[in-house]
Amino acid sequence: MIESNFQAILFDCDGVLVDSEGITNQVLCQLFNEAGWALTYDECFAIFHGIAVRDERQRIEQETGQPLTEAWMADFYAKRNARLSTELEAEPGAVEAIKALHQRFDGRIACASGGDPLKLELQLKRVGLWPYFEGRVFSGQVTPRNKPHPDVYLAAAQAVGVPAEQCLVVEDSLPGSTAGLAAGATVIGYDKQGCYIPGMRALGVRHFITHMGDLPATIDALTSATGLASV
């Protein structure tokens, strides 16, 4: 693929557009401990970073000794959404980057997340990004398979009318990076702590940022065919 031929950009949501993962994992960790699965925050984050809760059903039921019921999920969603509605903030630099890239790509941007649809809408509206993504928000929980499979990115690419091979994907997790690469897209890894860059590099990700405000310049480097050094 010619690097100057990128025609669209597809974004993960949690940890890329919005700083939601800390809030979500605090709620999740507390509920698991109440259900009998003794987890620290860090352990919970490591297990569920980039992974939908439902996709770990077997492990959850094994560790808690209880079925993962719809009532439990509804309680989790309610407590999580209550905190997101009042505490959530955008990732630093994300709003400015999205405004610039929405114009640059003539609206050919989309959000492709493993999160549930109501959460995605709540979060994007909360931080003022909904107008840039409305009608192009995709959840892996309603595609045939969630991340790390490519389905949600393929759906997003189809919606913006661009082959996945001509799309950039911005991801912060290993499952999400796997999904983007499997779709045939070029993945830009976002990791403000630097913790996941080695793992993403091992998957085949070659381009990285540590601040969302750097994304437009990173794309300039790629599309000018000058290349981009990995960090």
Write the SSE topology.
Layout: E1 8-11, H1 21-34, H2 41-48, H3 57-64, H4 70-87, H5 94-104, E2 109-113, H6 117-126, H7 130-133, E3 137-139, H8 151-160, E4 167-171, H9 174-183, E5 186-190, H10 197-203, E6 207-209, H11 215-223
Parallel strand pairs: 1-2, 1-4, 2-3, 4-5, 5-6
Helix pairs in contact: 1-2, 1-4, 4-6
- How many strands? 6
First-residue to last-residue Cα separation:
22 Å
- Integer-rounded radius of gyration: 17 Å
Global outline: globular
Describe the structure.
The protein has 231 residues and is an alpha/beta fold. 47% of the residues lie in helices and 11% in strands. The protein has 11 helices and 6 strands. The protein has a 6-stranded parallel beta sheet with strand order 3-2-1-4-5-6, sandwiched between helices. α4 (70-87) runs parallel beside α6. The longest helix is centred in the middle third of the chain and has 18 residues, at 70-87. It is globular and about 55 Å long. The protein starts with 7 loop residues before the first strand and ends in an 8-residue tail after the last helix.
